[in-house]
Amino acid sequence: MIEYDVIVIGAGAAGLFCGIEAAKRGRTVLVVDHANKAGKKILMSGGGRCNFTNLDITPENYLSANPHFCRSALSRYTQWDFIGLVAGAGIDYHEKELGQLFCDHSAKDIQQLLLSEIERAGGNVQLNTDVAEIQASGSGFNLTLNATPAHCQSLVVACGGLSIPTMGASDFGFRIAEQFGHEVLSYRASLVPFTWNNKNKAQWSELSGVSLPATVTSATKSFSHDVLLTHRGLSGPAMLQISNYWQPGEPLTIDWLPSINVAEQLQKDRHEHGKKQLKTWLALHLPARLAEFFVAELKLQKTLAELTKAEVHRLAQWLNAWEFQPGGTEGYRTAEVTIGGVDTLEVSSKTMESQRQSGLFFIGEVLDVTGWLGGYNFQWAWSSGWAAGQHC
Ligand code: FDA
């Protein structure tokens, strides 16, 4: 019989962090994972450099059916605490943009930091481990680890979501939650590129590789950042950010020239630079391939003076308020996160403990808390893992 005070299921960001904190309190801790490596998503994150937190963490950077849930943990274990840990370990890092902190060298630095911290605290990590037959017992939980019976007082579910199935992602955390009577709110792939609908694909896929700053707006939110056109659809940070707020079936509006009111500027420039070709005017403001595309699609091989009012209006619509009806998203294959998940209404925001089953904890992405792109999701993993680690 394997016996620990705390068994954590999932050796990802949240699970490892919780394991460190619980072991530091003197609890005997085993963190198990069915994958052959701990922290696989850490290793592939941030283009191999791990965007491990953000200088500007606020609850407003997170989405949840229960928006206040994340406040407590984020305020008790902050980005400054994690930055202190990283700096104290001698890991070099830098701010890339928008407060996003990345390792100078490699995401492996963060994975190694967590593994050495857990070892130092006396916790154990066991990989290639199948977890099954979880049952509450009077004094905690019985379960099997690779078919060997195990028992723990506290069971921490840190199984993450469904994104990148090839990295070990599974719905196991959701199933454990349901087994203990928790509601799992509807979930979907997020922080994910969009795909073309059939009509747009024929028109736009030739522009693959073009990238430009733009403003993307959903029914409830706008983001201004780069948009990347690909063969499959639209990607880049602005598109990934808006995917958190997009509901399937909804259109998005894209302003390809957010700094210019096209109708006003064209009216002005028609008088002052009437002989200028529209293509030349557009190429002053947009990548040349995109400028050529708009002129060809709208059949406007003309000078500015030759544009009719209706043509100016149509062009302004395309440039400042192009309506994009996504075919869908690329799904879990490339999504950075799963949005939705275990309903937080029956989980303590202070301890992450289930209010339905004493000794059962949920942390990280398995919960219905999803951050923006930019280090917010790792910070949630650290903060929620820390909170559970003080109580499990
Ligand atoms: P995580 O997914 O990290 O860990 C869950 C663990 O549970 C995994 O190790 C898995 O193998 C294990 N598991 C699942 N089912 C199991 C089962 N049945 N039995 C045993 N173990 C099981 N965020 C950010 O803030 N900055 C960034 O730079 C990036 N970059 C990024 C890139 C890519 C490509 C992806 C896919 C994601 C990101 N993210 C990110 C998001 C970030 O990786 C994510 O939010 C956290 O890893 C979530 O941490 P968790 O510990 O909750 O889940």
TrEMBL record:
Keyword Flavoprotein among record annotations: yes
Matches recorded under SUPFAM superfamilies: FAD/NAD(P)-binding domain (SSF51905), HI0933 insert domain-like (SSF160996)
Coiled coil residues, start to end: none
Domain (RsdA/BaiN/AoA(So)-like Rossmann fold-like): residue spans on this chain: 5-390
One of the Pfam families matching this protein, by short name: HI0933_like
Co-factor(s): FAD
Keywords carried by this UniProt record: FAD, Flavoprotein
InterPro entries assigned: BaiN-like (IPR004792), BaiN-like_dom_sf (IPR023166), FAD/NAD-bd_sf (IPR036188), RsdA/BaiN/AoA(So)-like_dom (IPR055178), RsdA/BaiN/AoA(So)_Rossmann (IPR057661)
The RsdA/BaiN/AoA(So)-like insert domain, residue ranges: 188-337
NCBIfam families given in the database record: aminoacetone oxidase family FAD-binding enzyme (TIGR00275)
Stated name of the protein: NAD(P)/FAD-dependent oxidoreductase
Organism name: Reinekea marina
